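Progress report, Aim 2. The chain analyzed during this reporting quarter is listed below.
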Amino acid sequence: MATLKAPIAAGYNVVRSISSVEQKSKGRWSRGDVIRVRLEIEAQNDMTWVVASDPVPGGATILGSGLGRDSTLATRGERRAGSAWAAYEERTFEAWRSYFEFLPRGKHVVEYTLRLNNPGRFALPPTRVEAMYAPESFGAAPNAALEVQP
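Predicted structure tokens for the chain:
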């Protein structure tokens, strides 16, 4: 399977960026750092049942579930912008997904927070936004490898 080299926009444009919430060493990621992932989604048309799926590095913990050692303080600055609201958010060991019952035309921003738990170099698959019942309407953006120091 070939890797995605450039963004694809067929109804949706998605841009992914990461920023530091807590970082041990400026300029590099380390085990235990907390990062904020921002997805900027631009929808060309109104559509029902749309999913945004973003991969997470192996062993990372997506914060905000309220379970165990989850930090509500770390998730406090998460932003949501636009007129779309998620019907359901899924936090798995492999990806963060947000399901929208209705995603109107325009720009939308969603953010989530995760803690990096394992050192290594993680090659991440593309971030993808797709209309679940119209798979020809989608957008995908390649992700750079993420290097996490011990």
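The two ends are 30 Å apart (CA to CA). The chain has no helices and 14 strands. These observations will guide the mutagenesis work planned for the next reporting period.
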